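Q: Structure tokens for this one, please.
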Amino acid sequence: MPKVSEDHLAARRSQILDGARRCFAEYGYDGATVRRLEEVTGLSRGAIFHHFKDKDGLFLALAHEDATRMADVVAQEGLVQVMRDMLAQPEQFDWLGTRLEIARRLRTDPEFRRSWSQRSAELTDATIARLARQKSAGRLRDDVPTDVLIGYLDLVLDGLVARIASGHAGHNLSAVLDLVEESVRRRD
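A: Here is the predicted structure, written as tokens:
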């Protein structure tokens, strides 16, 4: 049996994740059946589940990849920039549906909640580090604890995701994000 290169395995895994992201975004977790996953990836169930233990493992890997991508933007430019990017190019964010599905499963699935809390730490850590740097530079309010700022920004992000995913992204959301940024900035 020929040996498969690491590059080939990584490419196949990426192909599966890209297809699964579209499938979960379009059909939700429950509607993303194995048959649909096979159709969107162009691969057999054996090929898909060679890389992932099961559908839940595939969804968690996808959600973790998306959180990592968001964490990279947060670390460099902040969480509000992630939101601005969503507004500017919503078609580039297939993971909006994934984020909604994560929220639903966090509420309804204790096992998923345990798994996700272990995997979502990267995004939280990036946000905390960014806020700490901004506070140290004197750019953020120092009268509000960091955990409150994080809760506030997460709440705004979740609301924005819900608004975009429901097709109701209004013309004034950019101005709303300006207001959010202004509300966390240090006042001299």
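A few notes: The chain has a mean pLDDT of 86. The two ends are 69 Å apart (CA to CA).
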